[in-house]
Design a protein that fits this description.
Length: about 140
């Protein structure tokens, strides 16, 4: 079997008969899950509305049916993480997945934050403490 990056994979027959096989091209559409973080003080319901309103305007390859969905999936260290689930044609999956991190996420996140933000993301402060009698610190 030849991979898209021109590698050859040889699978023994015993593997084909005993292991499960995942076929990614079986169905005409595939779902892409994109993570969007918002601040803890932000309005989650409003952020979901903003993401759903923008997603089809940003990338025409994202299908209107089945409709996109947004779920709150995680309370991160400094953000509440939403998962934006969109559907694309199987042939567009890899392009939209890779480009989604550059083309889709930044405008969606910017809009969600600007329309819902009531707080900023957490910050971490790092102090440089002198370690030598010369007064030089660890960051000098």
């Amino acid at each position: 079997m030849k991979t898209p990056d021109s590698r050859l994979i040889v699978v023994p027959n015993s593997k084909l008969t005993s292991d499960k096989i995942t076929k990614f091209s079986r169905f005409p559409t595939r779902r892409i899950d994109l993570k969007v973080g918002i601040g803890y003080g932000d309005d989650i319901v409003k952020a979901k509305e903003v993401l759903l309103r923008l997603v089809n305007k940003i990338d025409e390859r994202i299908l209107k049916e089945p409709p996109a969905a947004v779920f709150c999936v995680e309370s991160g260290e400094s953000s509440v993480n939403l998962q934006l689930r969109v559907w694309v044609n199987s042939g567009d999956f890899w392009l939209v997945t890779c480009e989604g991190r550059i083309r889709t996420l930044p405008p969606c996140r910017s809009a969600a934050v600007s329309e819902t933000s009531r707080s900023t993301f957490g910050r971490r402060v790092v102090w440089c403490i002198p370690r030598h009698s010369s007064g030089r610190g660890c960051c000098d």
